[in-house]
Each structure stands twice: as C-alpha cells, then as structure tokens.
Specification:
single chain; 281 residues; alpha/beta; eight-stranded parallel barrel; 10 helices; globular
C-alpha cells in the first residue's frame, strides 16, 4: 500500500502556485499526492509533474470536483459540461503521472432530493449511458475511472458500495471501478468492513478520514475492522487522507465544516499518516 494526501486539506482551488506544498508532503513522509483539480485551466500539468518529480513524489490519483453545473444526470447543458470536464481530467491525468480519475463523477455534489421511482430509473439509465462514453474515452487513454458513493446529505443517487457496484455492472466497462471513503461508509454502510470485501477486485482507491472529517485514528471508526477487510481482500492499492478544516473556506462550506476539529491541518496530515502506517504493519 502507498499513502497519499489530498490537496483539499491545504488548497482550493489547486493552482500552479500550490506546488509549494510538495516539499512539506515529502518531508512528512507521504508517498504521493492526490490532486483535486477543480478547474483544469488552473494548472499546467507538465509544470506540476516536474515539481512532483523534483520532490520525489507521485500523483497517483486525480480527484474530480463535481460541483453545481457538472451533473451526468442533469439537464443537457450540465451533462455536456460534466462530460467535457471529466474528459479534461482524463487527458491531464497521465501528464501528471496518474492513471486514475476518482470521485462522485456521476452527479453534482449536494444534489439530494426525493424523486419518483420512474425518475430514479431515468436518471440511472442516463448516468449509465454517459459513463459508458467516458469509460470508452478513459480506456483509449489507458486511464481508470472510480466512482465514489457519498453520504445521504451530499447525494440521493449512490450512497453505498453495493449501489456503486451495480452501476459498474450496468455500465459494463473494465475501466470503471469503485472509490470508497471511510467517512461516507461510516454513515451509510451497515458494515464498512463488509463493503470493502464486496468491492474486492474493483476497489481502486480508499479515502481515509475521521468520523468528524478530522484525523484518521482520532475518532470512533472501527479502523481495526477496516484494515482487517483490506487485508482479507489483499488490497495493494492506495490510501489517501482526505480530511478538511475551516481554513480552506470553499471546501469547508461544501463539506459543512463549521468548527476547528483538530489543532491544525499539519497535525491531521502528520498524525493521520503515522496512524495509517501503523495499522498497515
């Protein structure tokens, strides 16, 4: 397993200027950086790659930001905007050194509403169709896509691993995987460990965060069971710390982070990494 840090903890949006973080990430002991690309126009991927190389780091995953206007089950304009955005991430990922684009790419984060069963079916079929096209594009570029279930407050569409696996089955592409997040699983899964076991063979990425979005390990999540499940499926993929603080205002509002839960961003990164490495031994 390799351990990474998502840039959301320190920077939003991520830009060329954000590379000042790379020496810190290396000093703290991270193997790689997961770059959250809110707007592909904000970065020069060749420059970012050179700065990663300079600091002995990799970008092993690109994190999608599907805010308002990016929605594979939305109106036609939202679908086109989302398709263009994800394709842009697929284009820049290999330049950054990554072969994985992950996140809730199926819908706008925050869209949560009651709809009829027929509307649910229509939305599902629409996302299947759109993901098939994206998977074809990803496959042609030797990139994988991984869809992330979110908690009920952030989406009404895919909340559990089982739902994500059903979407993967319906799309029918070898390029589509599941991306699980311990925070969301803690809210939505009957048994997060069993969710990981269900995802065996299709789990491309695991996000680690405390139950309060703070430091992994400093919370009430049953981490022993999480790592037991990872060991059971012989998971050799990546684990990324994706935690938040009120310091990064845009993300704090989107993730409902209203208070300072930890001493600092740095403490989340350093203490969280030490904990996760200790659990993987």
């Amino acid at each position: 397993m390799k351990f990474g840090i998502n840039t959301y903890l320190f920077s939003s949006p991520f830009t060329n200027e954000s590379v000042f973080l790379f020496p810190l990430f290396k000093e703290w002991g991270f193997d790689f950086v997961e770059i959250a690309v809110e707007d592909p126009a904000n970065i020069d991927p060749g420059f970012i790659r050179s700065e990663l190389d300079k600091n002995g780091l990799e970008c092993r995953s690109v994190c999608a930001a599907t805010g308002p206007g990016r929605d594979l089950r939305g109106n036609r304009k939202e679908q086109v905007t989302s398709l263009e955005y994800v394709k842009a991430l697929i284009d820049l990922a290999p330049i950054l050194g990554s072969r994985l684009v992950a996140g809730p790419i199926y819908s706008s984060v925050g869209r949560a509403e009651f709809v009829t069963e027929s509307d649910k079916r229509r939305q599902w079929d629409l996302v299947v169709e759109n993901l098939r096209g994206l998977c074809e594009y990803a496959s042609a570029n030797q990139v994988k896509l991984a869809i992330e279930p979110l908690n009920r407050y952030e989406t009404d569409f895919i909340n559990t691993c089982e739902q994500a696996l059903q979407m993967i089955k319906d799309v029918g592409s070898d390029s589509l995987y599941v991306h699980l997040d311990v925070f969301h699983m803690n809210l939505e899964e009957k048994d997060p460990g069993m969710a990981i076991v269900k995802a065996a063979g299709r789990l491309a990425l695991l996000h680690a965060s405390g139950s309060d979005r703070g430091t992994p390990g400093g919370d009430q999540i049953n981490w022993d069971r999480i790592f037991y499940a990872l060991d059971k499926i012989n998971y050799e993929g990546d684990i990324v710390i994706e935690s938040f603080t009120p310091d990064v205002k845009i993300i704090a509002k989107a993730a409902s982070i209203w208070r300072q839960m930890e001493p600092s961003k740095e403490a989340i990164a350093i203490d969280g990494l030490a904990f996760l490495r200790s659990m993987s031994l």
